[in-house]
Design brief:
By secondary structure, the chain is mainly β. Helices cover 0% and strands 53% of the residues. Strands 1-2-3-10-5-8 form a 6-stranded antiparallel β-sheet, with no helix packed on it. A 4-stranded antiparallel β-sheet has the order 4-9-6-7, with no helix packed on it. The model has no long low-confidence stretch (mean pLDDT 96).
Length: 114
């Protein structure tokens, strides 16, 4: 299967009470494409000043791999700067959030696994 960029499903929505909308390009469009091992594999784009609200993962974990831009990642209450090449992992029972603190879009891959 090949899914061209122009054929990807794109959604814009506020995530977990964050500020503004987050652009989501679905790399995998269903849990079937992840063989039941996860529920999300997306390219995410957060515009400057926008955010993903703080939330706790229950029954899954989430990995972010940053492609461009800069932001502040909340890792269980500890704020750390993130940028291109950085990876964050929020395990089951842990909390995280993300704010774009830069002047350009913050782009990253997000993967949620069970």
């Amino acid at each position: 299967m090949i899914r061209r960029q122009q054929d990807q499903v794109v959604e814009f929505k506020c995530i977990r009470g964050g500020k503004g909308e987050v652009e989501q390009h679905k790399i995998c469009e269903s849990v079937d494409e992840l063989y039941g091992k996860g529920r999300l594999f997306n390219l995410m784009i957060i515009e400057p000043g926008n955010s993903i609200g703080e939330h706790t993962h229950e029954g899954d974990n989430e990995i972010f791999y940053f492609l461009s831009g800069t932001g502040e990642y909340n890792d269980n209450g500890t704020i750390v700067q993130v940028g291109p090449g950085d990876t964050t992992i929020c395990n089951d029972g842990e909390m995280h959030g993300l704010v774009n603190t830069g002047d350009e879009p913050l782009k990253f891959i997000a993967l949620i696994l069970y």
